Predict the 3D structure of the following.
Amino acid sequence: MDQVLNALKLPTDRNIRYLLVILISIMAIMAVASGDRFFSVANLQSMSSQMPLLGMLALAMAVCMLTGGINLSIIATTNACSLVMASIITMAPDNGMVLLFALVAGLVTAVVIGLLNGALIAYVGVSPILATLGMMTLINGLNVLISGGSVMSGFPESLLVIGNGAVLGIPMPLILFVFFAIGLWGLLEHTSLGRTIYLMGSNEKAAQFSGINTQKAVLYVYAISSILCWVAALVMMAKFNSAKAGYGESYLLIAILASVLGGINPDGGFGRIIGIGLALIVLQTLESGLNLLGVSSYLTMALWGGILILFITLQKRKA
Amino acid sequence: MRDRMRFRWDALIKRHEFYLAALIGLMVIGLGISSEDFLTLGNIFDMSVSSAILGIMACGLFVVLIAGGIDISFPATAAIAQYVMATYVLSIGGNFFIAFLIAAAVGMLLGLINAVLVYKLKVPAIIITISTLNLFFGLLIYFSNGAWLYGFPDWFMDGVEWFTFVGSDGYDYGLSLPIITLVAVVLFTSFLMSKTRLGRQIYAMGGNADAASRIGINLFGIHLFVYGYMGALAGIASVVQTQITQSVAPNSLMGFELTVLAAVVLGGTSMTGGKGTLMGVVLGVALLAIMKNGLTLLGVPSYWHAVVTGLIIVFSISMTALNEKKQALQGA
């Protein structure tokens, strides 16, 4: 009997409960204010094709925050990957082998950047904020240098599908996001690396003393973060049909915001992928809803900041 | 005598500032030889003016970092202070004293909001200030419609110019408003952090907040002070920026936060609080300014500037980290 009651009291995580309350109230307000337009298929589709880009970046941020770190170089990494891929693809846009080669080159770029970040943090001993800030400056510089600051465009249809295609009415970016979110969830909750990540975030010393090679784990974490940036790069290239240094810089802080809103503890150790998913839905419904109501996007930006503070206050009130 | 010399030398080469100063020295010598414009008084004044805003804000962020916090929201604080100040000057007038006063007061007020949130919510300061950055910027652009302000009165446009002289290139140089403000802010911050009780309390809180609290330091008071001080300096820097660019654009400072952070940590200030010197910060700002100026004078394409800056930052923070690691090993 108790078990049934507990199951009905879904979800037990207070963080997720708050998010659900916020989400339902936003939806209720939208239903009253402009229900038929907000819940139209077109709006739902546009919402679900916008969210995944921020979603991938939030996952890239969150996996680092779980270890108690942070990755300020996610946008720079994403742009680096898309520029590397774009410069290869545009040499021969219609050649399948070139496309494949470009994808691999982008992935290699991501892994190299991730390993450099990880090595700076784990072996040199630089704090994560500084290491990734320095790398961000360096990569941004290289991005501008390689591209000459210009826009690269002209991609084949097979790549653009990632950004604009749909399967059974579900936009491709959303499918990609769900796929990688589930993958990351499996990694975090069902592998020893995942356990290590949580343990390191809670108490790095304890993790070291229990015989875990934390330095190697940090390398993995930042490499995974970079690989997620590579996926974000694919989505971004396909959506914008172009690549340029400096795209999407405003996403950096919002990715942190989404992670924290999703219940990732910035000190590390706590937080689940499902929370991030909910947080992203909250942010996206809020943005699309306000947009439909004709509210300025800058006011939305202010609201995002306000909501995060409100949310933290709620969390702390009863903690 | 010889032992004492050696002892001093040993202490010196352990310090981050020493390497930074040596690097700057090498750059100055190299640039002095390869470009005849570099070591002219005119160029040195130009460099000081163009790094004034960075330097003033770096002083504020330095104090926050020493206290063990961080503030990312100050570009938004500065932008709001700038907007309020410019609106006042355009509609009522006044003088520089009033302009600085208004901007500093507005900045301090917003800084106090940060302080209350950081202290009461006990969440990492970076998260709070990222939220307030979005909040402040969003509200400013919403209410101002992103409109530019210009057409300031003559006294504002002309600024202040002490001890003017004519440089070798024929232009007038002198102690202008940005340089005077920069020097005043650096001197005041230096006095504050090394000669006052408050300054030592800030170091104590950054070093170990629990211990500081137990010896009777009012942590909330220190929070209010450091974030308020950061806000006030952001306001002051915004007046200087307005005077240099002669106009106000709400988004002109956006993205500046990470540059200032880079300059401060380049100077060896620790991100965990309690460690760092203002000398290091000044050297960090100077290094960035000299490098940018030098690359321009040498005719290096601007595409390379960010790459070189990034390399120097990565190199410098790695050296600091390795140095700290070595000392921790020796101490243990």
Remarks:
- Residues 96-124 of chain A form the longest helix (29 residues).
- The two ends of chain A are 28 Å apart (CA to CA).
- The beta strands of chain A are 152-153, 166-167, 170-171, 242-243.
